[in-house]
Amino acid sequence: MRGISFDVAHMLAGSLVLVSFMQLYQARLYALLNIFALHALILAASVAWQAFIQDAPHLYLTALIALVFKAIVIPVALHRIIVRLGIHREIETVVGVGPAMLLGMGLVALSMVVMLRVTAEADPLAREDLAFALSVVLLGLLMMVTRRNAVSQVIGFMSLENGLVLAATGAKGMPLVVEISIAFSVLIAFIVIGIFLFRIRERFDTVDVRALDRFRGERR
Amino acid sequence: MIIDALTGVLLIPALSACLLAALPGYRLTSRLNVLAAFLSFATAVSLFFVEPKSGPYLLVDDLNKVFIVLTTFVAFTTSVFSASYIGHEIEIGRLKLTYVRFYHAMYQVLMFGMNLALVANNIGLMWVAIELATLTTVLMVGIYRTHEALEAAWKYFILGSVGIALALFGTILIYMAARPVIGEGLEAMVWTVLVAHAAKFDPALLNVAFVFLLLGYGTKVGLAPLHAWLPDAHAEGPTPISAVLSGLLLNVALYALLRFKMLFALNPVAIAPGPLMVTMGLISCVFAAFMLYRRRDIKRMFAYSSIEHMGIIVFAFGMGGPLANFAGLLHMTMHSLTKSAIFFAVGHIAQVKGTQKIADMGGLTVTNPVLGWGLVLGVVAIAGLPPLGIFMSEFLVVSSTFARQPWLVMILVLGILVALGGLFLRLNTIVFGEPRGPTAPAQASYVPMFAHLAIVFMAGIYMPPALVTGFQNVAKLLG
Known about the structure:
Chain A is mainly α. Helices cover about 80% and strands about 0% of the residues of chain A.
C-alpha cells in the first residue's frame, strides 16, 4: 500500500488541513472565500485520487460535485451576496489570530492522538485519512466559534462538511447513498442559508450575528 | 416496491406534502393535513396486525413500532390543534396566507422525515432522515419572520447542523468498524446485519464512534450542555411546531441513540454507553430544573421542562436493564402526550392574551376556565404528581434504579422536586389570582388536549395488559 498512491493521498489530505489553517487567519471576506474555493478544489482532487486508487468510479461523481458545486457555484454565489450586501470589509474575530492558531494546532494534535491510536489495525491510508478528516472537522468547528459574521460561519460550516466528505471517501467502499446525501444536504443547507442571509439583511441591515443577540426574549 | 404499511407511513406524508404545496387557502388544506395525519396514524396502527417484511432499507420491529405509532398519533392530534391555531393566526394577520401553504407542506415533510428515521434499516439513511427533519423544523421555526424567530432559527440551524455533522462522523466510524468484519458496501450499514456481527467489531473504533454519536444525536435530544438551541426554537416557532418538537423530534433523536446503544451492548469489549448517558441525563435534569425558576416566557419554561424530562428518560435508558428500560419507555410516551397537551393549552392561552410573557397572564381559571384548568391538569401531570401517568413512570424510574445506584437516584429526585417547585410557582401566576391581560373567550379545539390528558390519566390508574407486555418486549430488546 505504501507507494506513490499513498503519498499522493497523504499529501492531498494534509494540504486540506493546511488550507483549513489558512482559513483561520483570513481577515477579509473575499480572501476567506477564495481560500474556501481552494479548500474545495483540494477536496475534489483528493476524492478523485481516492476514486482512482480504490477503483471506485462512483467517487468521481462525488469529486465532480465537490468541484462544481463547492469550488465554483457556492463561492461565486457567496461572492455576489457579499457584493450585494456591501460587507466586504474586515472580519472581526472573537479570538485573535495567535490564540486561534494555537487552538487549531491543539485540535489537530488531539485528533491525531485519538484517531491514530484507535485505528491501529485499519489500513494506513484509511487511518491517516480519518485523522486528517477529523482535524478538518474540528478546525471548521473552531472557525465557526471564532467568527461573528454570518457568512464566515457558513464558510466554517462548509469546510467542516468537506472534512466529512474526506472521511466518507477515505472509508473504502462506503455506499453511494451517503455521498449523494451529503451533496444533497449541502445543497439544502445552502438554500436555507441563502434565504436566511437575505432575511437577516432585510430585518437588521447587517449580517453581523451580534446584532441578533439583542433580540433575546428573556431580557426584556 | 410493494406498497405495504411500512412504505405507507412514508408515502402518505410524502404525497400529501406535494398536494398541500399545490393547494391554496387554508380551510381546505388544514383539513387535508388532518386527514393525511390520520391516515398515517391508521397505517401505523396496522403495523401491529400485519407485520410487513423488513428489507435492506426499511425495517420494522417491536422497538420502532412503538415509536411510529406514538409519532403518528401525536402528529395527528397536533394537526387538529394546528387547524384551529393557524386559523386564528391568519385572522390576526400574524401569518400570511402564502406561508400557510408552505407551513402545511412542511408539516407533512417533517412527518415524512421522522417516519423515515424511525423505519430506516440503514445508518446512513437514518442520518439523512434526521437531517431532513431538522432542516424542515428550522424553516418552520423561522416562519413568523420576526427578529426573535430568525435568531432562534439561525441558532437552531447552526447548532443542529454541527450536531448532525458530528453524528455523521460517528456513522462513518461505525462503517469503518464494520467493514473488516462484514465486507465493503451496503451490507456494512444495515442495522440488522450490524447487530448480527457487532461482537466482532474493533472496540477502540466503536468507542470513539459512540462519543461522536452521543454528542451529535445528543444535541438533537437537547441534552445539557448541548441544549442551547432548544428553548429558543420552542419559544419562537408556531406552537404546533413546539408541540411536535418536544413531543416527537426529541424522541426520534433519542431513538437513534437507543439503536446505537443496542449495537454497543452486543460488543463485550467496547465501553458501556450507560455511564455516559446517565451522566448527561442527570446533568440535563438538574440543570433544566433550576433553569425553570427564572423563565418569563411561558413557552420557554415548558421547553426547559422538556430538557428536564429528556434527561430523566436518557438516565433511565442509560441505567439499562428490563425494568429501567420499561420505565424509560413509559416515561417517554407519557412525556410526549403530556407535553404536547400542555403546548396545545399554551398555544391558545398565548393567543387569548396576545403575549407569551408570564407576567402579563393571570386568573385564567376564572376568565377561561377550560383552558386554565386544562393547563393546571397538564402541569400537575408533567410535574409528576399522582395519580397521573408521569407519576407512574417517574416512580418506576426511581424504584427500578434505587437499589443499584442510590446516590445517583438521589440527584435525580432532587431534580424532579426542584422542577416541581419551579413549575407550580409559575403556574400560580398564570392561572390564579387577579385576571390580567385580555380575557376574550378562546376559539379553541379542546379535543386534542383533553384526549392526551385522558390517556395520561388512564395510564396512571390502569395499563392494559397488552400494552404492558408490548413495552416489556421492547425493554428486553433494548438490553
